[in-house]
Amino acid sequence: MILIFTASADTKSYQHTSTFFEPVLQWLFPWMSPAHIELLHHLVRKTGHLTEYALLALLLWRALRRPQRGDRRPWRLDEAGLSLVVVFTYAASDEFHQIFVPGRTALVSDVFIDTTGGAIGLMLLWAIGKVFKQW
Q1: Which pTM was predicted?
Q2: Which pLDDT score is estimated for 107?
Q3: At what angle do helices 77-98 and 108-131 cross, to 10 degrees?
């Protein structure tokens, strides 16, 4: 959560990633229009949101569950649900925090993207547990 908070406090975050990402894309795909490059940059940033909040949800789930080696307890929806509620609450507070950071904008859509990332992470965890007969 501290890493997410620190990253969201970065002014001009979009410009920082674009100075690296967009030239690399232009080099790899010289025929691609600037509009397409900007769209890809935007998609990569939103995928980063999904990923970081998926990891946050998994870490929260693990902290709540406190699994032990050889743990065969069944999957509990309340543990996953509480993890997701914390992810949603933290995502909302992070967007609220960005109101006060110059050069950043708070978007409700980012809260939904972040929460979706948390849900995807928890669903993948559940699916992996089912495949490997953990629950």
Answers
A1: 0.85
A2: 93
A3: 150
